[in-house]
Amino acid sequence: MTRDDFDRFCGSLAATTNVIQWGNASVWKVGGKIFAICSHWGAGEQQKISFKCSDLSYTLLCEQEGIAPAPYLARAKWVQLQNKRAMKVKDIKAYVEEAHRIVAAKLTKKQKAGLGL
């Protein structure tokens, strides 16, 4: 999944916003809360996709080759795909969609109503 594909997919989810921060990372939010990030760190480094996941998914995904706890976000159950082969595109989309749902579910009723969620 390219960064453009990632951005298009995240933008298709309900009530999302995008900011570029942390050294040109594409940061996706719902209700002001981050649910997914696509970053490209350092010269020659591959892009890396990170997302929030459930406790069970976090445990299972971290055992797979090419997937690691996300730097700075692991305590909140975030994983980072270390390379393009770590996960199929359809699975990335499913996990990012679930990340969106997890984060949106934690918003207040007022925030959800204001966002049409």
Automatic annotation (TrEMBL):
SUPFAM superfamilies: YjbR-like. One of its GO terms (molecular function) is DNA binding. InterPro entries: YjbR, YjbR-like_sf, YjbR/MT2646/Rv2570-like. It comes from the Bacteria. Keywords: DNA-binding. The keyword DNA-binding applies. PANTHER family: CYTOPLASMIC PROTEIN (PTHR35145:SF1), CYTOPLASMIC PROTEIN-RELATED (PTHR35145). This is MmcQ/YjbR family DNA-binding protein. It comes from Pelagibius litoralis.
